[in-house]
Fold this protein.
Amino acid sequence: MNGVNERLNAIIGEFADLDGREKLELLLDYAAGLPPLPPEYQARKGAEDRRVHECQTPVFLWPEVTDGTARLTAEVAPEAPTVKGFVAILADAVNGRPVAEAATLPDDMLERMGLADVLGILRSRGLRAILARIKRELAGTTPA
Amino acid sequence: MPDYAHPNVLVSTAWVVDHLSDPQVRIVESDEDRALYTQGHIPGAVEIDWQVDLQNQVVRDYIDRAAFEKLCAERGISNDTTVVFYGDKNNWWACYAFWVFKLYGHKDCRVMDGGRKRWELDGRAWSNDRVSYPHAHYKASEQDNSIRALRDEVLKHQRAGKQLLDVRSPEEYRGERMHMPDYPNEGAIRGGHIPGANNVPWPMNCNEDGTFKSAKELEKIYIRELKMKRRSPTIAYCRIGERSSLTWFVLTYLLGFGNVKNYDGSWLEWGNCVGVPIVKGAAPSHPNT
């Protein structure tokens, strides 16, 4: 049974060995794998509190907990493939896992993936903000 | 594009297609999201990233002259190359890169009007080939201080009541949006704007398709409504000097303003300085000043 960090460590390891260009290509592969927003969430996009204001491109996140299990649903505009790929990786790691594990998502994952240098200081900060928000909201969600 | 003051700096997507194999021309993409270049770029275009390539990674500043020379040489750009910039987001970062090239004195810089969006709308092909060119020789000039304003100069300029433009969103200008949750090191301590600055949010320069507005429309905004004078010294700023590079480009090349500087320290510096004047609210200045 793979926990959040086993899954994530595998992904981090996959990135760590690549050159800068290949890292971005792999990120694009993940971005392409982010499922489209389910229709029941489409209607709730107007709820502005789901929008991540720190991001300059529209990013909507729904970190949710059902019976102690985490699920991250998200929509990221196609013009922001970096954010989209990063969110897809996080969704892949936490979905279906016990919510307590989500709190252990490593804060230094961008450095370990070698993405921090490829993306630069400001973009990395933006992605860390997304990671922090997902962790905080999953931890604070009252189990349904 | 006949009505602009310097129409030659703007090229169309068709012009770019005609020059794809022109050894005299180098196409350069600069994006907010650099994975866009990886996903697909104009065939033969090289990437110059505003964060990783153009900014000094230690000091808060642009790369120095030697690093700029190396960057150009590695991209196969010589002093006499025609460099055409394009990118996402209304060419916002393309204008930023253009400005840095002018800072180091590159002669022939152009912008592809409409950027990635227009290229896509025109149904033109993308390539995801890895692009490289033989190294070129490049000799950069000293920084051109006629287009860059540093803090002390901005303070003098402000005190003298000269033309200032704040190109951020109205919320940032009024000082309502400044706390950015989860951005502990990127916010400014104080919100508002530099006294006397008019607010023209940068997207007002552009059309829906990413192209620049016509000379007539731009004149209406800056000359007719704000009564700005082409010959008066002007300083533009935003949060970190990125959005204001686009406004600097518009004023200088499309409207023919003679003396425009970009204050790249921008609000992230001003809003953290001790003792500099700040105005909150929608009016450019306090009513009693």
Observations:
- Chain B touches chain A at residues 32-36, 38-39, 49, 51-52, 55, 57, 88-89, 130, 180-183, 185-186, 240 (CB under 8 Å).
- The beta strands of chain B are 10-11, 25-29, 46-47, 82-86, 109-112, 163-166, 198-199, 234-237, 260-262.
- The first strand of chain B starts at residue 10 and ends at 11.
